[in-house]
Amino acid sequence: MAIRLSGMASGLDTDSIVKAMVSSYTTRKEKYQKAQTKLEWTQDAWKSLNTKVYSLYSNISNLRFSTAYNLKKTSVSDTTKATVKAGSGAPSGTQSLKIKQMAKAGYMTGAEIKADSEKTTLAQLGYTGGDAKLEVKMGDETKSITLSASSTMNDVVKELRNAGLDANYDSSYKRFYISSKKTGVANDFTITGSNIDGASALYSLGIAYGGEKTTTGTYSSNPYDEYAALHGVSDDETRAKIEAAVTNYNNLTTDAAKMNAQSKNLMNAVNYGYSYATLQGIYEKLDANNAGDSDKLKLLEKLGSSRDGALISKNGASYDTYTKTTLTDTKGNTLYKYIDSDNNSHYIAAVADTDKGTTSYYDVTESTRTAYTDADGKELEAVPTGDGDTTLKVGDKTYKKDEADGKYYLQKEDGTADKTDFITVSQKTEYTIEAGAVNKTGIESASVAYDTIIKSMDEKTKSSYDEALASVQAFENSKDEVLGSDDKYSVASLTKAIQNAYAGNGKEAVEQLLAGNGNETDGFVNKANALEEAAEANTKKAADSNIVKELASKQKDSSEYTQALNDLLDRVNTAYTLQNKALFNSQVKKVAGQDSEIELNGVKYTGDSNSYSINGLTIEALAETGDSAISITTSTDTQGVYDKVKDFLTEYNNIINEMTKLYNADSAGSYEPLTDDEKDQMSDKEIEKWETKIKDSLLRRDSTLGSVMTAMQTAMMSSVEIGGKKYSLSSFGISTLGFLNAAENEQNAYHIDGDEDDANTSGKTDKLMAAINDDPDTVMQFMQQLSTNLYSAIGDKMKSTDLSSAFTIYNDKQMKTEYTNYTKTIKEWEKKISDREDYYYNKFTQMELAMTKLNSTQSSISSYFS
């Protein structure tokens, strides 16, 4: 930077003069700064809009599936006993519920002790021992606590809480109150001493619990009895008794798991059996009206969700399935693939006639040719030359093969290879419609064929079909995790038994198999109940040996097993010592943790809480009902379906209205972002108003915005064919108000006739609710397809390109590059301004120095004449 002497000799305002001289440069810099600011505001506007569009895109993703509209509502005959919520999978109808037992948390009220405050120590209670070792056991988890004579009541409470219990000491009543944090047997707790001092400390604290004292002076629930029972006359005998208990525990738990799995399968098979018989009856009814429909329907059921991309074709008594591929023939027609019994693939091409609205299908031939592709992926016409095709000729260019990577590189004049210009050789498979191929008849869309059959059913039959099919598929697709396939109660065995019964004597044989002949041991239900009771008995027996549970989970020959065995041996020996030496507080009271028990439709369920989720129902038990039953009634939530459609339209309207407003915004004319100097001449309010004027107009008549709006509007205006009939939003009383009636920038928004919240249409007949009540399936199918159309339209606009990122509707990459370029350009102009200022300041500095020197000379000369 030049030395700047500002008017020292000349008296000139050098800074102002230089500033004026470089003003043209400054103006250019400010032009780019304003453009960058405007671009930044545009980016912000797009980001805000993109967030809302992406939110709509994400929300309508679920609306493409029937589960979004399969809403249920439920009521309970006595809300003081239970609350129930119904999920989409809950069956419609009335069910019976009994709440036999409520879940409870384990609770202990300690005996009265002589601790006047929370700061009283164990020593003040008379405890004279050393380190008191305690164990808090909750379910399968055991935590250790160590207390001393100096431990206060507060310390005890803190340790118990750290161990996972709720604990308090009430100095008014001089007692401890302790409870488990969760309900249920598995969450109950015990507090025991793991040494003599620990047992003594518990007694001093008034929380040594051993149950009720018997007439013989013992206690009914001595907590040390369970471990002490494994004690032998020697350590070897004790180890032998422990290992025998492990073997017994493993046998009990293994058998219980097997019987529970068998019981579960039998109960599920009951529902499967009745559903299977119902489904076969529907098949028979279909065949009575049109022979072969049942075989077609069974195939279409197996296709499931892949029906949308499949075709079917009659082949004798059966059907061939063609699945849609991503391949095309040489003319761009989509290919469908069929795999024959020998696992060979066959293709047909779908040729659409857009004028006639028809599609024809032709067999194609598969051939392979050599393809030559340049570095950009473009296919070239190349001629192999040289011995062994070592070179390729493309026009007048020669490419030579590189044996290292197999590519052909352009040969330069000096004989070297140009590694940036190469050709890749590959084998390309092509599909061509066979010469003389005729249109294959009898081919139809799998989804259309399915809809046609389903629509042929009356409403009652269709409802039965949907429920029966779901039940049948759920059972047949379930897997046995515990039972082998050869077990007589495995899914495979029970499926075969039910199907054989139906094949023998139809529905009557199936019902007899499920219900039995009146004999208590006959029928799937009775067998399931018997197995469940046996499993429960085994589980209870195993619980009596829970002390070996951890040991039983380890590999017998491992070091972990040996260590765990020795640890358990020490615990048994300690328990044996404490069995008779430990003192218990006779006043302490303990309420055991308790599991809940309910009966739903006669089937018993138990749990460690009062909440259940069963077959789509979420049940919260509030009070016991005894032997009386309360009813749960479930039905389609028509209002919920209506609200789902309304919420979708509301979100769409908000976005399309905002887009319309942005697109139709007033022009900002010559308004440009302000410089700092310009802002200094204006008030904050004036600045805000000025900038708002520009920001509001940034997307005015924007071609990208217009393209997105058009795509969304086209999707919403599209018609959907259901059962051979076309539907649009207007079919359900949903339409726009039009340019003349709509508010400004709201002409593209949709309104529901009869919507009480919409002043424009509230007085009209509510066609949407009527359609939901009369034919909910049609409304559901229409909304699914409409949502799919809109989802696809937005998705296409959000695809990644060279100019935009994925899930972005505007050219964010391009704008980012432009912003970076502006930053670079502004810096360049700042450098030019600085260089120009230095140039001028240098000139002025030279002038100032010259004038200073001149003034000095003149002063010297004047001195000679003075």
Describe the fold and architecture.
Keywords: Bacterial flagellum, Cell projection, Cilium, Coiled coil, Flagellum, Secreted. Residues 593-856 form the Flagellar hook-associated protein 2 C-terminal domain. Homopentamer. It comes from Agathobacter rectalis. It is found in: Secreted; Bacterial flagellum. The longest helix is centred in the N-terminal third of the chain and has 55 residues, at 235-289. The protein is 45% helix and 21% strand. By secondary structure, it is of the alpha+beta class. A hairpin with a 2-residue loop joins strand 25 and strand 26 (617-621). The chain is extended and about 135 Å long. The strands form seven sheets. Strands 10, 11, 12, 13, 14, 15, 16, 17, 18, 19, 20 and 21 form a twelve-stranded antiparallel sheet that branches. It has 21 helices and 31 strands.
Biggest pleated-sheet summary: 12 strands, antiparallel
Shape label: extended
Q: Uncertain segments of ≥5 residues (pLDDT<50)?
A: none
Beta strand count: 31
- Number of helical elements: 21
Rg calc: 43 Å
The fraction of residues in strands falls at: 15-25%
Cα end-to-end separation:
42 Å
Helix content: 40-55%
- Output mean pLDDT: 88
> Which structural class do the helices and strands define?
alpha+beta
Domain Flagellar hook-associated protein 2 C-terminal: 593-856
InterPro entries: FliD, FliD_C, FliD_N
Subunit structure: Homopentamer.
Family: Belongs to the FliD family.
